[in-house]
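This follows on from our talk about sequence and fold. I would like you to pick a protein and set down its sequence and fold. Go ahead and set the record down below:
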Amino acid sequence: MIFLDEYKKELAEYIFDNKELFKRLTNKSVLITGAAGLIGSYIIDLLIVADELYGINCKAYAVDKDNQLLEERFCNVGTNLVKTICLDVNEEKINQAV
């Protein structure tokens, strides 16, 4: 797919230009809320490609309230570095736990 190849190329260029930032994420874990949305999924895509390029081994916990979107977006990413969590962070129970 030409679109995906271009997208991945753009991600790789951004990562190369900011490689020190991404290398600081080596062996870290990050929690991305709104992961099925535009910005959240973009951040996770960056982490996946950064791992392919530099082996940063950064685990991404992808949180979103829409489990179907999470599964559609991340079920075939080809890495075990992305873990999906279906959760509405705006629920009152979550607010009480914090």
About this structure: The beta strands are 29-33, 59-64, 82-86.
